[in-house]
Amino acid sequence: MYGVLTLSLKITNWCDLNCAHCCECSGANNPTNFMPLTRAEQYISEFQEIPYHIMQHYTISGGEGLAPYQFGNLEYIPTLLSCIYKIGGIPTIKTNGVWGERYNTRTEILKSLAGSAYFGNKLLTLDISVDEFHNNLKGVANIVADVVQSDYLLPAIRICLVGFNTDGTRRNMEKLRTQLDDRELHSEILPNHDWAVYRDDGKGMRVVVDDEQEVHDLGRAKQNNVYTATGKPVGAYVNCLSIDSNYLATLNYLYTEQIAGRKLKDVMNSLLRQIEQNGK
Ligand code: SF4
């Protein structure tokens, strides 16, 4: 295995959307079953002991990575972020952005996230899907607009829009830009696909646009041939060790091991042996 290793904590399998292509098989009918914070802290700490080129980027994902707020647990994400910041980590949170449609929820979440980022003195990134499968453009436009229009949020929060290399994604990205116009923001596409989004006084931010992902695997839609989802190929430069709330560790979306009662570095060694045996 080449490259660097990043840690992703899948804190829940609950999500308010039920996308047919979801390769996490997440959905609104799943229990929230949040990963206990003590375990999350233990994984983050043990990750430091892995003798590999670890990357100080930590991902909080799901399901819906910001679900704790939506269930009234306002301390869960700030506590987890504080733990990541304490070891010098840089956090990314994966979210569908639908909560951006609700003013009170949006205001509460963005203010809380920015507070954590100021506490850690490092940026926090929101990784939001914008493609042909998620009906979330209104929420995402509200989130981008709130961040760009606020002198408090702007230095603390960055946004990455993730889509597929498809016409459907490109169409929805354009629709999103139109919705930003409606919110009196200006946007320009930069040479590498990223956007510059700014307001009348010239203040603004670079929105990272990652719309090059191939559609090459099937999620639960495989069962009824509805549509497709992604899975990352093994051997990419950035390797991902994902841990879910059911004690399952997965390397590069492919190799899995139960982690209960074991040290993370032992699990990692075992996963690497699986890769060697498969010649990848
Ligand atoms: S693809 Fe994303 S938004 Fe859709 S159900 Fe899965 S986790 Fe939720």
Mean pLDDT: 90
Count of helical stretches: 7
Number of strands: 11
Radius of gyration: 19 Å
Q: What is the beta-strand fraction?
A: 15-25%
Account of the 3D structure:
The protein has 280 residues and is α/β, with parallel strands linked by helices. It has 7 helices and 11 strands. The protein is globular, with a radius of gyration of 19 Å. Mean pLDDT is 90; it is low at 224-234. Iron/sulfur cluster binds next to loops.
What is this structure's SSE topology?
Layout: E1 4-10, H1 37-47, E2 54-61, H2 67-70, H3 76-86, E3 90-95, H4 103-120, E4 124-129, H5 137-149, E5 157-164, H6 167-182, E6 186-189, E7 195-198, E8 204-213, E9 238-244, E10 248-251, E11 255-258, H7 264-277
Helix pairs in contact: 1-3, 3-4, 5-6
Bound molecules: iron/sulfur cluster (SF4).
Residues 15, 17-19, 22, 24, 26-27, 62-64, 96, 129, 134 line the site of iron/sulfur cluster.
Features:
280 residues; alpha/beta; TIM Barrel; 7 helices; 11 strands; 31% helix; 24% strand; globular; binds iron/sulfur cluster
Brief sketch in words of this structure:
The chain has 7 helices and 11 strands. It is an alpha/beta fold and 280 residues long. Helix 1 runs parallel beside helix 3.
